[in-house]
Amino acid sequence: MATNSPNITLTVDGVRRTFSLEEFERRLDGAVHAQGGYESAGLIAQSASLLFIVQAGFILLETGSISTRRGVPVLVKKILCSFIVSTFFYLLFGFGIAYGDGPFFAGGSGYAIIGAPLCDNDTCCDGVEGCSATEKNLLIFRLAQAALSGTILSGALAERISVEVYLVYSSITSCIFHPLVARWTWHESGWASVRHDPLMFGTGVVDFAGGAAIQVIGAVPALILLPIVGPRRHRFRGNAKTVRLPWQNNYFTLIGAFLIWTSWYGLLSGQMPRNTDSEGVMARAVVNTTISAVVSCITALILGLKYERRMDASNASAGILSGLVGSCAGCATVSAESAVLIGIISGIIYFSMSHFLITYHIDDVVDVIPINLCCGIWSLLAAGLFSEQHLISRAFSIDQDTAPCGIFFHCNGLGPRLLASQLVFTISIIALVLAGTGLITLPLWWFNALKDDSETLFEEGEEEDDSGRSTEEEEEQDERAVVSRVSSLVAPTPTTPLNEDNLLLRNLQNVYPDIDQLNVVSSRA
Fold first, then answer.
1. Which of 193, 202, 322, 447 is the most buried (most CB within 10 A)?
2. Choice among 11-25, 45-59, 339-353, 420-434 with the minimum mean pLDDT
């Protein structure tokens, strides 16, 4: 016996309209989805805007760390040119590789901004109004992520490679390495994704904010390139641990670090899942990231005070960035207590690895290897150690019964599997980027096209300032002037040796580390 479905009558501004229950539910769902779509589109647009500020932060951070006067305009050209070139190639190839429809390895649509997941109509959004705007804003957000991954390498190789060579590596990173790893971890068809079926080791890989897809793959090329291009000239004169090249500016470094910290929240909010607990996930990610950055900064400052006998602004800025990177993968899947521990270990990793590089005369200008590579790897491993099952379920919108957890928690024996998955995936992407970087570097090295001595203090440089003097001549003349001034200030004895208790000597050692090997002869003798 057929039953009639109830009708619903609405009166709006004196106009009565009658709907069947099914039609009313369909229209109500459409209105809810539309509102959510428009809100998501606005949030993603704001997140992308914040993420673009990272480029300004990198410019200031690197400008405060380099030593040549000509390095600043070259740096700006590098950052701006790489961003423009990376944008072009990412729109052409990268977005399709990462987020196009297709198999688990690479997408088969979305190239040159054509086809799914970008929609000029509602056909690929199942008729949901507002979906198209969300997907197009996601394109801009993903573009900013790709540009971030391609910019990281610049800080490691500052003052030693040309703009043209840097553009090659930046473009390959942004348009090939990043899209591939982003697809494998974030796209539902990616072979390492927690949403993929079947799951890698039964768990998939937990990486909420790009510990692998942004930080690690952006820094790995430095492992090959830094030993080849070598250190900047005069970087390791005398006692390598105390050398400070001229014209460095800690004000720029700190401002750049705080700009990056501010824009980092855009990276987190853009990754927010579109589900009923999205606000809770975002709040947890923001709080944990902040905790990790603060604790890591304090840890780096304490270590600097203990082993370097000073509170260094560079340790503060690097400690902040280490905490941000160290919390990338698990910021939305760990507790606040775990975030404290992640921050402490991130600060220790940065400080120890930075001194390790200095010991072996590896000139990493802004500590890309300690911060982005080592702390990026730590973030992936930390997610495998401290992630909680219910938090992974909320962060990635998956069923809690099948969600994995960290090794310190019990969830059907999936803890060790998640850690193994994180470790295997990390090794896999490092091997991929090393192989790709090697193929690019070999012909450049063979034709001696890697080093660019015209913009650097690398070789026996002839770089001159506006007065016509070379940098080396200027430094030697300044040093002679300072020593002459010292000679007129010391006691009038034929030979007055300087000792560690002399305040003047300690002040001079901040500028000229080798002064402890000199005996100053008084001009009054």
1. 322
2. 11-25
